[in-house]
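Known limitations

Files may contain more than one protein. Parsers should not assume a single record per file. Below, a two-record file is shown to illustrate correct handling: read the sequence, read the token line, then continue until end of file.
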Amino acid sequence: MRSAVLICSLAILVLLVNSGDWLADQLVLRSNDTFLKNSLNILVNRELADKKIPGLAITVIDDQNVLFEDGFGLADPTGNVPASPYTVFQAGAVAQLFTTIAVLQRVEHNKLDLDAPIATYLPSFAPRNPYGLDLTLRQILSHQSGLVAEPPVGHYFDTSRPTLTQVVESINQTTVVFPPETFTKYSNAGFAVAGNVLEASLEKPFEQHMRAILDRMHLKRTSFTDRLDLKSKLAVGHISSLDDRIVPLDPLEIANGPANNLYTTVNDLGAFMKVLFADGLSPNGSILDGDAFEQMWTIQLSTARKQIPFGLGFAVSIFEDQRRATLTSNTHGFTTRIDLLPDQDLGVAIIANLAYSEATLEKLAGYALKLALAQKKEEATPAFPNSRQPDSSMVSQAIGYYINADPLYISKSDHNLYLYQDFNRYRLRQQGDSLIIDDKHAYGPILLSDGLTLQYNNTLYSKRNAAVPRAGAPRYANLTGDYGLPDRPITIVEQNNNLYALDGWNTAYTLTPDAEDRFLFPVDGLYGGESITFTRNETGEIASAYFANMPLPRLTDGAYADLVRTVPLEKPISGTAQPLVAPPESMLTAYGNKESEMVDLTHVDPLFNLDIRYATRENLLGTQIYSEARALLQRPVAEAVFSIQRQIRRLGYELVVYDTYQPWYISNAIWESVPDSMKYFFNDPQQSICQNNGTALSVGIFELNAGAAMPMPSEYDEMTALSYADSPLPEERLRWNRDFLRRLMESEGFTVAADKWWHFTHNSCPQYPVMNTPFAEVEYINTNNLQRIFTVDR
């Protein structure tokens, strides 16, 4: 064996010496190829962990060669099913590319004309069109028709199963939004029309014809319907909750197939890109002439655009001095991105089973293309796009409320730093000495802060103190609320006498009054040029909203009907009689070893407002947990609390404390007693120790004049999405109250819990070790010598 290896090695050496530059070049290419794979593996795994994406699959194509193809993470976390290139995903708007190809085939056969009026093929198609210019297939396929974004029937929120003809007929109820060929306006409604034109031209159902096209390209795992053979391989779609948990979604079949209902794998998308790069030649013959494909990534129509230009089906841009054709899709629980560099025959396709992760996929696709270009041109390998958790000094410097024409707010929730503006939330990371937006749904730009001012989007903002809750009746209280479906509502909110529509927690539209009960969307958004109209019942109350022509009923019970005020325990628990259970060694050494200096708040101020509900049976667990009502905090935390007390006492408020130090054995007993399905609401004693070392507390605000706690979005310890620190509340006053408390606490070094507006952790937490001492045995410092520090005027 050794002889064979030695002979083989000598042969390779001789070959290397005698082959000169050719073999050296091949070895360099092989090295670059390995580096491409290793680099993508590292970056994809890092992004999955950082963005909490359950799973994704990716393929990178160079002409007819697969440079990289793999799956990462889990297609179904519950079943522990890994993602692979053969995992079936819902790819949404990728359907538009195949619809476009089907139309171009009919054009190539002289059965359709891209520039003929749609009425030539669909005489009944007649939306209101005040502009006089006929609508054409070219306009539709390049999103230049001016049609509405979604059809009134068969839209994203429609759970019925209308036919494609019924979907298109409903568009006759709408009005063309912009003059055709003047403005890029994305329109799923337009692609429904294109699909219906195909049906009329072919005299057969759309899906039946598309099956023949897909089969010709040998795309066996791609379908416009939820075939039974694909359902078993379908990944589970997910969405991020307000507290950054990843929540699975039930499958959703969308009626508008030509625009937004495609099932596929990245392996099939790789095969599809090979057909594109082969000028339409597929395993079973030619699909289209190469010139027809060229139109797909050539900007259509010569009119000026205010948004991204389109070819046919693809958005067109420049990347690394190369033409780029892109399609991005956000569908129910999934995000898809396809990027082509047609002049280099390079392409990337990525699908993730997490909605609103388009920025992450753009980053991954961009880096994959840079690697492929570098390999193709034998150039230096590009560096990783890199960011990290911000340094503590940068976090404390940046946190605050900033004022300009459009104010913004930087705040920390759990472990993440966020920027908030007009109800949009963006996660911040550190890049070099600056902050940068690096979130699933947004990436860049850089923020520069010196602690007093903030430079963002070429605008200078100045830091201000926490705002006092505003008085006065809201202007649009009768319109605010949740509309649509309980599991994916549209939330209408008011702020500073302005109305906003929130589609999920990370997409906000500013609404402009147009007429009574009618508001306009921003021109440059998805629903640009369209409106939202609120309708009333016979008693004058708001009953529904036509959200960009989509009828959405008002949710009278709100979107959060899953209120839990008492958790059903799986076994009895009594913290008053619980035998001591020692924390594991890993917990004892997790944080610092600073000597404890516990302060009893009531020993400093006997009138301190306490409402320690775990010392009673009136709490989330329905049983008494604490043997006595105590409020114990480490000295720096207590000093911070009394500093806040001094600030708000002059304004007519006081703090009310619901909970403070909790011995570790009680946290552990609670954790072991609550059902697994509800554990997300409680602190895992193996991972969280801040409440166990006296540096975390639950708190609200008490209004002295009212003699009651300040109204908040939910009750303390209420287990519902209304408890989230960033819940998009329709009622402005409740948001002001919640955010006022949050800003007060942040001004003294506290960070709010993402899922509990009332729970705050002090920045001194890492300095202290976990404690397991019962309340009665806790040693606290003598506060007689600290009265000057803790004194609060009454």
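...continuing to the second record:
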Amino acid sequence: MKQKLYLIFILLLVFSFANAQKSIVKGYVFDKENNTKLIGANVVLTPTNFGDASDNDGYFVIKNVKPGKYQIQVLYLGYKRAEKTISVSSGKEITLNFYLERGSIILSPTEIHVRRKVTFSNTKTKILESTLEQEATRDVGDLLRQVPNVSGVRKGGSAIDPVIRGFKFDQLNVILDGGIRVEGGCPNRMDPVSSHVEMEDIETIEVIKGPYTLRYGPTFGGVINLITKKPKAFNTEKFEVHARAVKGYESNWDGDKEHLQVYGGNNRVYFSLSGSQSRYDDYTDGRGEVISSGFHKWNHSAELGFRPAENQEILLSYNESHGRDVYYSALPMDEREDNTNIMSIDYTAKNLSEKISDIKIKVYRSKVEHIMDNKEKPFGDTVAAISAIDPTNTGGRAEIGLNTGENGKLFIGTDYENIDKDGTRTKNFYVMPPTPMGMPIKVEDIWTNSNIQNNGIFVEYSNRFGTIELITAARVDFNRGTTEDMNVYKFVKGGKDTIQQSIDDVNTNFTNLSFSLGLSKQLSENISVGLGLGRGVRSPGMVERFIRLLPVGYDQYDYLGNPLLEPEANNQADLNIEYTNKDIGGFKVNLFYSYITNFIAAKEVPPSYVKQNTSSVLGVKQFYNSQDAVMFSGFEFTYSTPSEFKMGGQLIAAYTQGTMGEAYSKLTTIENDPVSEIPPFEANILLHYKMFNDKLIPRVSYRIVAEQNKISESYGEKNTPGFSVANFGLVYKYSKLLTLAGGINNIFDNDYYEHLNRRMLGSHDNIYEPGRAFYINMIVNL
């Protein structure tokens, strides 16, 4: 089997087509204020069906252009439109550079579909830096909850864990800068990947729904790519130095944050130095209750880039982030200390030949030191517990891009990830009499020398045939997991469950095949239709395989890992319809359906098999693979007014539902139980008005969320009441140097909570969201 897979890979590697000599329009897109190159700008050549989006170097290229006169437009959210008229001659290349002025501030996370470029329509969302600066969000997960069908699990005041269409945790591929992975230390995910990067360090967030993008690791339910600010080459030989500062304040939390970045260089050598700090107290919810949620975080980073040749770049990056006294009102412990460092080296080469479009190589190492304790929890005076966990993740990726024919592009590459995780929990029993050695102490293993390795080989091919666009991808993953001895309880459907008391030196190996196919058709100038079909397979994660009796779920049970788990597979289809009209705006509709096999769930095990390790939990559950398929379905709808309108906005609606064919409440079988932790239907109305040549933009948003009564009996969920919340914001661009953004969140001080908010520790009530809060952000560019 492996020999066949490698043969297919080799054949794809040598696969190429001859390029005919055609006219080409190419160039770069820059920020006019600081000469930095812009990523993801839409470049459209009218009245043709051609276009491109600027890459990580700000570079775009439009091939196969017939001779004639054209209008070329460049659009980038948060910037003013740029246009040029060009004349194209046969067999010639035209090089154009665009310098965009900052203009309209982006009003909300908006789905960007680059028309006339091969892509999965409506499954990709980009959130730009301008959005991050004008919001009062405290972490990435908080901001992502504004994206249609993206929600989050709140356990405290920060580190909200993203959920896309009901997929969460290891079902999502969350990466930094197109390939860096971070393994969190906390089994309860108080430090998900998104918590290890500060908001002010992010340039763009990409959210890709579904198992379609396979170039950046195993993808099951979606990809979240957090692209941080990196130094970019300037368009000059003169050495320049610039600075950017952000200062923010939020009333409810008495919270403040500051960020400073100094960057500069020329067209050969460039650098960036940055640092930030945020300090927030507990917040008050709409009922007037104080929620334990304060935190103190800071970080600093340094990047150095240089170009050994005009079309090559080497980038060295180092980032440190720290957390102290981070409180989680839903968890049995608080984060006392977190220290994370991430190092990476990137090599990029562009346009090496007519055949080779680019080569990208990345190597990284991320290290987390995570310490938790219960000293400020209600039961901390009887048993003092301290957990110390030190995961390390090392890996990298390499890919080559090949031009195949007039419009074709082929990417071939490999990636590798190695996770080492070890940790213990130490308990001091104050209620027990001292021994001759002192207070009674118990040391428990959380993970014992656990390791997961994943090596993947991937290929992606795209092409355009007239008005039809094609993109297809495949990857093979070789996954290996090891740990020391563990107990396993095996669930047998239709038969007697069996107990295997111990497995020594656990070693599991999987070979997973994932693939996707996307087709889109431009039916007319205004209407396009797209269909995506994909199968994403992922191996079980560290918690699912190796966790040792900790309450890591919603349902207040101790959980026990299962090293015998099989990989779960998501077979998904997305249907996308888009209509655009320059006079009335654009409509986008997405319908999706997922059919999941080997779904990883949890079932209670008898107390006679294993005793709970946490006094306040209801029992012990162990992970297992459901033998019945699990199904997800839903939709997203977006209407946006034309960007030229002074008065405009968006209407957004989204809904997801999921059903397990068979689940368990204790040892009782439940048929067609709803999947747990899925948010209800919601709709958002966003309005804005551009004043004084886009210098002043007031905006209003109104969010309506329905009651969630499709709840999981097997996980002990309860109905969540519906609610509505209104927010007001104001952006004032005083000059190129100064921008002010402020507003009021939860204007009417409503008391409400999201369905995915975890329960308060020792209570049946979910954590309520913050009440009314005033905020202001000041952004200075020098």
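Parsers that stop after the first record will miss the second one. For reference, the second record is described as follows. The first helix runs from residue 2 to 14.
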